[in-house]
Predict the structure of O-methyltransferase/MSMEI_4947.
Amino acid sequence: MNRTAFAIAAMIGAAILAPTAQEQAGQPGRGGPGNPLLQAFDSDRDGVLSPAEIDAAAAKLREHDANKDGRLTADELPRGPGRGMRGGPGGPGEMTSANDPGKPMLPKDDGERRILAALEQARGGERYANVSTSDGRLLRELAESIGAKRVVELGTSTGESGLWFAMALRKTGGRLYTHDIDPGRIAVARENFRRGGVDDIVTIVEGDAHETATRNKEPIDLLFIDADKEGYDAYLRDLLPYVRPGGLILAHNMRRPAPNPRYIEAITTSPDLDTTFVLMDGAGISITLKKH
Ligand SMILES: C[S@@+](CC[C@H](N)C(=O)[O-])C[C@H]1O[C@@H](n2cnc3c(N)ncnc32)[C@H](O)[C@@H]1O
């Protein structure tokens, strides 16, 4: 590995393996046996990073590149109490599929296994600005926890968020209505829903959602806004009357790309709505409860 590559690897390693409070409080820290870079990359535990271990560091970092695009994004990097690689693979505090929100949850049955396999395949294709794994896990849990029967999604893309919703809807006996303007992405989404075994509970609506979504006249349990950002406030205005009291309005990209300020104002100032912002270390999601 050349010097530049090592410097990048070291910076990334330092960023994801920042000292714990324990280390800051005087426990072993940088330069000592508790040094996070040593913990992550010093395979033979001799307290020194050898040239071979330095070379191997890049490969270890690449293991986190879930979508194999050659880059590491925040949702691919380990996070949480153990900060991922602390203690090395398999060591104490390492995030696994079981406890890392950035990784798919463990499937509970064959249906979930099939959906997760479809998601993994979808993540290997064009990603556009699809939800991250942590985003998707949250969408699914929120939909399932409110027993959503009718989920309306604006912005299907290739169907990743739709697959997460479908996982919830399999349990609730509900249905997803998902709208997109792009026929190419819709074709991929259709195939992904088929592959995930959920095409029977998904209705794809092709066209400009500013027009197609207003055809909805049924109560909505959960509305997910993830299409054109400048249109978020119009979508809210048009569909809020159909969201049932106690229903949820979720919106993606509340941090990046820059959110629509009219939408933020609408969801944070209305006395009928309560909003919180989550997963803001990634794209960011707003969770808005329609109270009345
Ligand atoms: C960020 S992607 C959606 C990602 C998807 N929700 C996911 O996480 O898998 C945004 C999508 O909105 C669609 N879109 C943009 N403007 C639209 C409009 N006016 N009507 C319908 N879809 C639109 C785009 O074609 C694109 O597929």
